[in-house]
Write a structure and sequence with these properties.
Layout: H1 4-19, H2 25-36, H3 42-56, E1 60-63, E2 68-71, H4 76-99, H5 101-107, H6 122-131, E3 133-141, E4 146-160, E5 163-170, E6 177-180, E7 184-193, H7 201-205, E8 222-229, H8 230-238, E9 246-248, E10 254-261, H9 265-273, E11 278-282, H10 284-299
Antiparallel strand pairs: 1-2, 3-4, 3-7, 4-5, 5-6, 8-10, 8-11, 9-10
Helix pairs in contact: 1-2, 1-4, 4-5
Length: 302
């Protein structure tokens, strides 16, 4: 497995080729040094490209016509790798913090997640997935103030808004469900063999079509077009809502952002967070729905 130093260098190479476009080997090595304080050699750079392709499925190749290196195709593998590299960077920081906790506590201010529980179950869940064993646990329903015991085939762990969810198939149900780790207790690995995971790959892929977790609110991927205030547009460029995001900066006070996804409740909540700085233009039904939500909000302040 790649170490912290190597992962940092690989992620920086991906970042440069993603945001700078076609870049020569000399310019890439220069950018690594100037932007990230990473001193490397042409030979190491070539090994890094092979490492990215062989171990992470990311191909950066030399384009003779452009006379530089290009990311062959930016797909989910790039997003997954960058997220993995992000976790690695955090792990390195926290590992240093274990050696000198007083300095870490003095200079690093993490978000308050003291109320969040369930992360201790992640290792057991991953073990069950690896062994193809079913899990059993009790899950709390905050809305109904009840709890229920589930036996499930675990498929994935998914992060959303700094919370972790178990993606699994409960017994006697054909559709996958998401379970917040903070609502799970008494988690145990059973001796029962898990169901065949390949049967649910198509459902898992549906997460790529949505913001968040709910992928069955709408049937088809749709074009969502927003008008976004120019300063807010900069934030969206640095932190996209979805992998399909395309930002079109008109040079005026407002720009355009286009998505291809399945609109859902989580998308609506993300749009509401931007307040008056965003306007839904398409589709018309979503524009009307957002307008109704805003009117309901206004009525609460009368």
């Amino acid at each position: 497995m790649a170490n912290y130093t190597l992962l940092k260098r690989l992620s920086c190479i991906v970042h440069i080729t993603t945001h700078k476009g076609c870049v020569s080997k000399q310019e890439l090595i220069k950018r690594l040094l100037c932007d990230y304080d990473i001193d490397t050699t042409p030979r190491t750079f070539e090994r890094d490209l092979k490492n990215l392709k062989d171990n992470f499925g990311i191909e950066i190749s030399y384009n003779r016509a452009e006379r530089g290196y290009l990311l062959v195709e930016e797909d989910n593998s790039v997003h997954r790798f960058l997220k993995f590299a992000e976790f690695s960077s955090l792990a390195e920081i926290y590992e240093e913090g274990m050696r000198d906790y007083s300095s870490f506590n003095k200079y690093v201010i993490p978000d308050d997640s003291s109320a969040f529980t369930g992360l201790h179950n992640m290792a057991r869940i991953l073990k069950a997935i690896t062994l193809s064993r079913k899990l059993t646990f009790r899950k709390e329903n905050y809305l109904n103030k009840t709890s229920k015991t589930y036996t499930v085939t675990p498929l994935r762990l998914k992060e959303y808004l700094k919370r972790w969810y178990l993606i699994a198939v409960p017994e006697d149900i054909e559709d996958i469900r998401s379970f917040g780790l903070d609502r799970i207790n008494n988690l145990q690995i059973t001796d029962k063999n898990a169901q065949t995971k390949k049967a649910y790959e198509k459902q898992i892929e549906a997460y790529g079509d949505v913001v968040g977790l709910n992928f069955d609110e709408t049937d088809e991927v749709q074009k969502v077009m927003l008008s976004v205030e120019s300063n807010q547009l900069k934030y969206l460029k640095s932190l996209p809502l979805h992998k399909s995001q395309v930002c079109l900066d008109s040079g005026d006070d407002w720009g355009t952002v286009i998505y291809k996804l399945k609109p859902n409740y989580e998308l609506e909540m993300q749009l509401l967070k931007m307040g008056e700085k965003v306007v839904v233009m398409e589709p018309k039904w979503l524009r009307k729905k957002m307008k109704n939500r805003i009117n309901e909000m206004m009525s609460n302040y009368v």
